[in-house]
């Protein structure tokens, strides 16, 4: 028992150090992307607390999982069998309460996508069938349409961090401008057009071109990070084949950055078209009722359609990323309308469920989760 506690303590220390490094690195990258690399001490203090929390979260999960798994292997293998992984991951996931609610939601949504991907791959492997990639394209289009529609009309159903990212991605809208353009206005107020709110003194074409270039620059910085960080968890392969892996990362960054920029451009053009057309505005867009949901869905679909420039393999990844967000929006809508209670335990439950699926795949079928995740869990748990 003493050896188990000592090994678990060492595991917790390694995982905590890993968490501190990941959070510190992501904070620096986020500051670079936002152009705010220099911050005062008062602004850095909360970031330091969050960094310590994230380190304690990863360290606590790794240590508790190690202890529970070893105890179940010694005393509960006959009773639980392969389900001991699920029990250990479920109990260890309770440590997610350390994280602030908003960050826990973001982590849960990300892991939910990975867990859903593992379930889909397991089903394909077990049945011997392959789901058509066109189905994933259709699901992604529906998810992204709903996501942009929610950002335009009802941002309360979105996680706060996702809504802020949506505004940053748009490069030209803020919450006040969206409210003036699309959402319900007090009686007696006239709804303004994009020329009066977004780009006074400039044409829609000129503004859309500048916004597209700004969105592309932001998207390139974002995908440069998303495409290179996973390579660090596959450093052994990177040392063997550095040039092909970096070339592939550069190609993916350029194509995916263009995809995001075109998504923004599609939403911009549709927004301007609806905003400045008097007939359309008076037909669906009365000052009292705000933008029709039909218009919101049209803007969302126009923003999602450029996904067709991505390869079909990316449709699957994007679908797995956006589906948990759509599920979150549905639950949030039900909470706001008092159909289900509002409680923080929902996020803990979904986090635990996602980790149970991921850890079972990691222990028993590693080929159904991404290689970078296998490498990360190797660092975290070995």
Outline, from the CA principal axes?
globular
Q: On the 0-100 scale, what is the average pLDDT? A: 80
Report the order of strands and helices: HHHHHHHHHHHHHHHHH
Q: Supply the number of helical segments.
A: 17
**Poorly predicted ranges (pLDDT <50, ≥5 residues)?**
none
Give the beta-strand count.
0
Q: Can you summarize the main beta sheet? A: none
| Coarse structural class | mainly alpha
- The figure for the number of domains is 2
Q: Which range does the strand content fall in?
A: under 5%
Please give the share of residues in helix: over 70%
The radius of gyration computed from the alpha-carbon positions, rounded to a whole number of angstroms, is: 23 Å
Distance between the first and last residues' Cα: 19 Å
In words, what does this structure look like?
77% of the residues lie in helices and 0% in strands. The chain is globular. With 382 residues, it is mostly helical. It has helices spanning 2-34, 41-75, 77-80, 84-92, 101-127, 133-153, 160-170, 175-181, 194-197, 204-232, 235-240, 242-276, 278-284, 293-304, 312-336, 345-364, 371-381. It has two domains: 1-129 and 344-382, no CATH class; 132-342, no CATH class. The two termini are 19 Å apart. The mean pLDDT is 80.
Which secondary structure elements does this structure contain, and how are they paired or packed?
Blueprint (H helix, E strand, L loop, with lengths): L1 H33 L6 H35 L1 H4 L3 H9 L8 H27 L5 H21 L6 H11 L4 H7 L12 H4 L6 H29 L2 H6 L1 H35 L1 H7 L8 H12 L7 H25 L8 H20 L6 H11 L1
């Amino acid at each position: 028992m003493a050896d188990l506690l000592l090994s678990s303590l060492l595991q917790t220390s390694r995982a905590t150090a890993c968490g501190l490094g990941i959070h510190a690195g992501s904070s620096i990258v986020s500051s670079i992307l936002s152009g705010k690399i220099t911050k005062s001490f008062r602004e850095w203090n909360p970031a330091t607390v969050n960094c310590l929390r994230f380190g304690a979260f990863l360290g606590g999960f790794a240590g508790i999982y190690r202890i529970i798994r070893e105890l179940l292997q010694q005393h509960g293998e006959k009773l639980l069998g392969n389900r001991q992984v699920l029990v250990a991951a479920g109990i260890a996931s309770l440590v997610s309460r350390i994280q602030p609610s908003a960050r826990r939601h973001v982590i849960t949504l990300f892991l939910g996508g990975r867990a859903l991907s593992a379930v889909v791959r397991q089903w394909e492997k077990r049945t011997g069938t392959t789901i058509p990639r066109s189905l994933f394209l259709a699901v992604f289009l529906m998810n992204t349409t709903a996501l942009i529609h929610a950002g335009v009309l009802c941002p309360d159903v979105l996680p706060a961090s996702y809504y802020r990212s949506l505004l940053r991605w748009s490069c030209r809208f803020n919450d006040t401008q969206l409210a003036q353009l699309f959402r319900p206005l007090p009686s007696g107020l006239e709804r303004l057009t994009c020329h009066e709110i977004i780009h006074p003194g400039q044409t829609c074409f000129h503004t859309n071109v500048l916004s597209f270039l700004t969105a592309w620059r932001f998207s390139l910085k974002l995908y440069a990070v998303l495409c290179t960080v996973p390579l660090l968890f596959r450093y052994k392969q990177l040392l063997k084949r550095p040039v092909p892996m970096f070339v592939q990362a550069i190609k993916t960054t350029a194509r995916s950055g263009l995809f995001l920029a075109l998504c923004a451009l599609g939403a911009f053009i549709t927004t301007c078209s609806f905003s400045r057309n008097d007939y359309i505005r008076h037909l669906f867009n009365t000052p009292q009722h705000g933008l029709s949901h039909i218009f919101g869905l049209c803007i969302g679909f126009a923003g999602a359609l450029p996904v067709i420039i991505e390869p079909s393999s990316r449709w699957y990844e994007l679908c797995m990323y956006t589906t948990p967000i759509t599920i979150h929006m549905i639950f949030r809508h039900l909470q706001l309308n008092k159909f289900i209670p509002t409680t923080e335990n929902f996020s803990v439950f979904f986090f635990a469920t996602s980790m149970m699926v991921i850890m079972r795949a990691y222990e028993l079928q590693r080929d159904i989760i991404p290689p970078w995740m296998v490498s990360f869990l190797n660092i975290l748990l070995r």
